[in-house]
Design a protein that fits this description.
The chain has helices at about 30-45, 70-75, 75-95, 110-120, 145-165, 170-175, 190-200, 205-215, 225-230, 240-250, and strands spanning about 5-10, 15-20, 50-55, 60, 100-105, 110, 120-125, 130, 170, 180-185. It is an alpha/beta fold.
């Protein structure tokens, strides 16, 4: 029986759950396919303002890919290319989501789970969370398209440490190395992740989308064009900008509509 990708919407928050509890939420091929589909769908939902990705239960976000599948899904070059093309498509869908994304991390966040978390905008974990990709002990290397997100997040030194040594990092070390944004007590991680989501939802949704766009654009070593600089003031023509200023001056809570 394959695992599942669950999606529940509550108010403006969509929760996407990796569910394969019998295998610590190990991600099989069908789950990679469904993850890509769900994230594309959620990204196009104008009622959503934040997406929380989490694992089913408290033991693991995801303990990596489903290794048993590798015997028949990845046993030839062509099948390996097809398999990892699908993994890459799922990771890209997470990265491309126009809404802010939060990885709610409990327990093991290993291999493919770490790759998914690296594509999110924020990562909140519990004190007992564990991180790594000890695939050097399995005799295979990380696919370059999957390594890219981890490298962008944590830098070459940390990626070398994770992949060459195959070490499993605790939450405190993961925080120090930039793998996560916040570490809280295990009992508080769910509440903290959703508190973060609500803070995001309280802001103007168009602004959140633009902030994601500009943070990523500025990581490219190419100067902004005059057209891009002008485009950065697109907020001037929005209802939300006028509402935000009015609410501030009137000392009330703004009612943003995403327009």
């Amino acid at each position: 029986m394959s695992g599942r990708i669950l999606c529940v919407r509550e108010d403006a928050i969509a929760t996407v759950t990796l569910s394969n509890p019998g295998k610590l939420n190990a991600i099989d091929f069908a789950m990679w396919q469904k993850l890509a589909e769900v994230l594309r769908e959620v990204s196009g939902d104008g009622h959503v303002r934040c997406v929380v990705l989490r694992g089913d239960g408290e033991q693991a976000f995801a303990a990596g890919g489903d290794i048993e599948e590798f015997l028949h899904r990845r046993d030839t070059l062509e099948r390996a290319l097809a398999y990892h093309a699908q993994v890459g498509a799922a990771l890209q869908a997470v990265f491309d989501c126009r809404h802010p994304t939060i990885a709610l991390l409990q327990g093991a966040c290993i291999g493919g789970g770490l790759e998914i978390a690296a594509q999110c905008d924020l990562r909140v974990c519990g004190e007992s969370s564990r991180f790594g990709a000890p695939i050097n002990k399995l005799g295979f290397s990380m696919y370059p398209g999957e390594m890219e997100g981890l490298l962008r997040l944590a830098g070459a030194a940390t990626v070398f440490e994770i992949l060459l040594e195959g070490r499993i990092l605790g939450a405190a070390e993961a925080l120090a190395k930039g793998l996560v944004n916040r570490v809280v007590a295990d009992a508080e991680v769910v509440a903290e992740a959703y508190a973060s989501a609500r803070r995001i939802c309280a802001g103007a949704p168009l602004v959140a989308t633009w902030h994601k766009q500009w943070v990523r654009r500025l990581q490219h070593d190419v100067p902004l064009s005059e057209q891009e600089l002008r485009a950065s003031f697109a907020f001037l023509d929005t209802e939300d900008y006028r509402e935000g200023l009015s609410a501030f001056l009137e000392k009330r809570k703004p009612d943003f509509r995403g327009r």
